Amino acid sequence: MPRPLALYLHIPFCAVRCHYCDFNTYAGLDSLFEQYAAALATEVMQAGVERGRPPVSSVFLGGGTPTVLPRDLLARVMAACRDAFAVIEDAEITSEANPGTADASLFVALHAMGVNRLSMGVQSLDDAELQWLGRIHGADEAVRAYHVARQAGFENINLDFMFGLPGQSIETWRRTLDRAIDLNPEHLSLYGLTVEHGTPLYDRVRRGLQAPPSDDRAADCYLLALDRLAVAGYEQYEISNWSRPGRQCRHNLIYWRHEPYLGFGAGAHSFAGDRRWWNVRPVPEYIQRVESGASPERDGEPIGRSVAMGEFMMLGLRLVQEGVTDAAFRSRFGVDVEVVFGYEIDRLVRRGLLERLSDRLRLTSGGRLLGNQVFAEFLTVSE
Question: Which residue intervals of the chain bear CATH 3.20.20.70?
Fold first, then answer.
């Protein structure tokens, strides 16, 4: 039996586009909802038929805000996944949700569609910070949405938060963390604010209208999170992700373990075997291509052996407990990791960023703060 795949379905619509976001998302395209959902379902069906209806262990509805789509359209897309692929009985099926556009009937409908995991983009539980971020919900509204989701039957909920925001103090971050812990979600994702090229935030920073995020303050926030979440019983399993025991995000583990996934929708990326590819980004072009019977694929590239080894290290080391095991690297590439990357490993160990255990390599606590420097060592070798 082939290894189960993960499916990612991109819903590129938002009620309002946040000024820091560089994802392929759009506001004001409500008139294209129905055509887009039909095209997405068609792409999914065609891919499943071409591959002989392979097994799937994870489905992730991401965006954008998937829940801005009318429920009947979401149900159509979910039905296409089950018709085209053999979604296993205990598959993890996640939908992202915005607390500002969610209500009880929505959560009940998602649960009825088979969604068994929610990922809610809370970002902060401080109203001033939410206003700066341009979010359409307040802190109390986010908390209410969480409780409503629980009442609808969701037993696996992730909450996303951001740190390192301009004007964010350690104390406001501490209050957000403590309030989040009090909610007792199964999973927490914490991301430092980054200024991405092409976003309104990037333009404001470039023009001197907004101070850039402070790396030192972001590091302080991250260290505080490490402490508070450990005390609360959360296990950090990835640089930016914590969970209750056994509640890791199975979908994202597939990415970090460099395993195959298929992406559907405008701008979605896929990876399988020794190749990755991606779809056209503009929504109208995506719809037109699928409706005309053409492939929505924009481009792709083969992944050479050396590049694959570097990416395997970069992604695997993000898993701060699991790391990269000797056995996994040897199984994938037929050679010991020390033979390929011995020099880089020695240098990173001497710098205190990487540690050797009996059967694996993983980041030290200092390496988690400087992960990008660690990853660059392996990616540079693979180029």
Answer: 5-256
Domain covering 305-382, topology: Arc Repressor Mutant, subunit A (1.10.10)
Beta-carbon contacts of residue 28 (< 8 Å; ≥ 6 apart):
none
Rounded to an integer, what distance in angstroms lies between the CA atom of residue 333 and that of residue 330? Answer: 5
Helix (H, G, I), strand (E, B) or coil at 353: coil
Distances in Å between the alpha carbon of 229 and those of 140, 233, 237? 22, 6, 12
DSSP 210-279: SPPPPHHHHHHHHHHHHHHHHHTTPEEEETTEEESTT---HHHHHHHTT--EEEESTT-EEEETTEEEEE
At 273 the pLDDT is 86
What CA–CA distances, in Å, run from 234 to 16, 117, 145, 328?
32, 18, 22, 26
Lookup: tokens for 317? 């080391």
Handedness of CA 309, 358, 364, 188 (dihedral sign): positive
Q: What is the mean pLDDT of each run of 10 residues along the chain (383 residues)?
A: 90 90 92 98 97 97 94 97 97 96 93 97 95 91 97 98 93 98 98 90 88 90 97 98 97 96 98 96 98 98 96 97 97 97 97 96 95 92 55
- Taking alpha carbons only, the member of 379, 359, 375 closest to residue 367 is 375
**95 vs 280: CA distance, rounded Å:** 22
**5-256: CATH number:** 3.20.20.70
Report which of 319, 358, 265, 327 is spatially closest to residue 36, judged by C-alpha positions: 265
CA distance 178 to 275: 43
Residues of the chain with CATH 1.10.10.920: 305-382
Please state, in angstroms and rounded to a whole number, the distance separating the CA atoms of residues 77 and 185: 27
Q: What angle do CA 254, 38, 70 make, to 5 degrees?
A: 85
pTM: 0.95
Report the C-alpha gap between 307 and 290 in whole angstroms: 31
For residues 277 and 270, what is the distance between their CA atoms, to the nearest angstrom?
5
**Coil, strand, or helix at residue 347?**
helix
Kindly write down the DSSP assignment for every residue of 60-73, as one continuous string. EEEES-GGGS-HHH
